# Entry
Amino acid sequence: MSTEASTTRAEDSTDMTVEELRAHTLRLAGELPGTLRRITLRAGALSVDVEWENPPAPTAPAAPAVQAAPVAAAAAPEPETAPADLVRVTAPLVGTYYQASSPGAEPLVKVGDTVEAGQQLAIIEAMKLLNSITAEVKGTVHAIHVQDGDVVEYAQPLIDLVPAG
# Structure
């Protein structure tokens, strides 16, 4: 089970530099109990998401700037019958998963689409760099395990492909 918290800068000014945001995040991570699983920084609206491996033990009330983050929508459930030769595409890095090449554009792939080896399936944004996620085999998209905009972890299942022939 994980626990998440978000914080935004309490001062009126939002002219915080990336280095200041990083320093505040490191200080926050050091002050909070428990083993950290993930920290996500956002430049717009200056927020910081912190997720623990195990919920921290109850302590004194947190600073007023810390509040519970909204619960993310659950990803689509896995299909009940998965083919035996299924090829699972996993996240090669931690970042934000995108189904389309730009906001509002059609998804790169949908369940049931036929894809070629090397075809782009999705994008993972990490540190403002867009990383292309491609198919390793020719096949059909069997399942998509994450939703557009979800934060993904290293090796997290993204897309299942049924190889052709």
DSSP finds one helix and twelve strands in the chain. The helical segments are 18-31. The two ends are 40 Å apart (CA to CA). The longest strand covers residues 36-42.
